Amino acid sequence: MGNISYKEALRNARAVRANKSFRTGMLAGHVCRIISRYCSAWFVTKGIVPNQVTLLMIIFGIIGSIFFALPYLWAKIVGYLLWFLWFTMDVSDGEVAKSTGNFSKYGTEMDYMAHLIDHPLMNLAIWLTFLEMNIINLVLLSAIFIVAISAELVTRSLITFRHYDRKLNMSGTTSIPKEGSWFKYFWGNTWLYPTMIVCFSWLIVVDYGLDNGFSFWLFIIWLSGYLIMFIRDVIKILGRCYRGDNGLS
Fold it and tell me: How many domains does the chain have?
């Protein structure tokens, strides 16, 4: 981008979503965008490319998970803050790419890899936290998180599948996300994994300090909703594959 000023870079980062509706973006993304645009502007002025921002995302996710797993309240606070930065970087790499026009051939694949690395580690950190709180027995808790991790890994595959199917069926046209109702928007976003990490996991930290146990049952409610959406998506895609439909997005 050359010697661009921070002010101009910030204006470009803000313009990325200036004409887009709230309901066409992820809920966790809207929360993290409070600071992501400032990070993006700084990255642009320093010549940091989107893939380097994605690498920061991976690092924040890993280090945040290590801290969150430690049996100390201060460590879990640090862990959550790093998780917040994790998704902030996920938002920021897209802002940097769109602001500069610097799109990498492997950018999308690297972003998916980042989630494949970080999500299981985050699940393990939350599992250890609930284990430390001694809410239910080890076997049942482990079974719950095995289901959660397994479903999340399959979800990553479904997202990749949809991405490439969308690219094959766009035929050179620009895809414009459709807006649904506010209820549909919040219902669909509540069960997304980043929403759980950004908008919910801080409650686990609060609960850890209070030693109450309420966050575990909130997690069970979230996981139940997530699994309902997950099973629906799997059935939908398998059904279309069985019928030989071309459009799966």
Answer: 1
